[in-house]
């Protein structure tokens, strides 16, 4: 018997503004969050507004590949 693909998958959300700026002396790193999404309900990439401790504000965090 073949197994079904799991509907719930883990995804990593990364701050888009930190990635655009790149690494410099002021930036200590890139903010990342882990969450889950239902592959059947949201097949496209996930984007959420989350707090970035490096930018000190709420920014768009987009899904990245593992």
TrEMBL record:
<keyword id="KW-0150">Chloroplast</keyword>
<dbReference type="InterPro" id="IPR001705">
    <property type="entry name" value="Ribosomal_bL33"/>
</dbReference>
<keyword id="KW-0934">Plastid</keyword>
<dbReference type="InterPro" id="IPR018264">
    <property type="entry name" value="Ribosomal_bL33_CS"/>
</dbReference>
<keyword id="KW-0689">Ribosomal protein</keyword>
<comment type="similarity">
    <text>Belongs to the bacterial ribosomal protein bL33 family.</text>
</comment>
<dbReference type="GO" id="GO:0003735">
    <property type="term" value="F:structural constituent of ribosome"/>
</dbReference>
<dbReference type="InterPro" id="IPR038584">
    <property type="entry name" value="Ribosomal_bL33_sf"/>
</dbReference>
<dbReference type="InterPro" id="IPR011332">
    <property type="entry name" value="Ribosomal_zn-bd"/>
</dbReference>
<dbReference type="GO" id="GO:0006412">
    <property type="term" value="P:translation"/>
</dbReference>
<protein>
    <recommendedName>
        <fullName>Large ribosomal subunit protein bL33c</fullName>
    </recommendedName>
</protein>
<dbReference type="GO" id="GO:1990904">
    <property type="term" value="C:ribonucleoprotein complex"/>
</dbReference>
<dbReference type="Pfam" id="PF00471">
    <property type="entry name" value="Ribosomal_L33"/>
</dbReference>
<dbReference type="GO" id="GO:0005840">
    <property type="term" value="C:ribosome"/>
</dbReference>
<dbReference type="GO" id="GO:0009507">
    <property type="term" value="C:chloroplast"/>
</dbReference>
<keyword id="KW-0687">Ribonucleoprotein</keyword>
């Amino acid at each position: 018997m073949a197994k079904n693909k799991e509907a719930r998958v883990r995804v990593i959300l990364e701050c888009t503004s930190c990635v655009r700026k790149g690494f410099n002396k002021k930036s200590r790193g890139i903010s990342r969050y882990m969450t889950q999404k239902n592959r059947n309900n949201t097949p496209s990439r996930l984007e959420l507004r989350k707090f970035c401790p490096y930018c000190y504000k709420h920014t768009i965090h987009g899904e990245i590949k593992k």
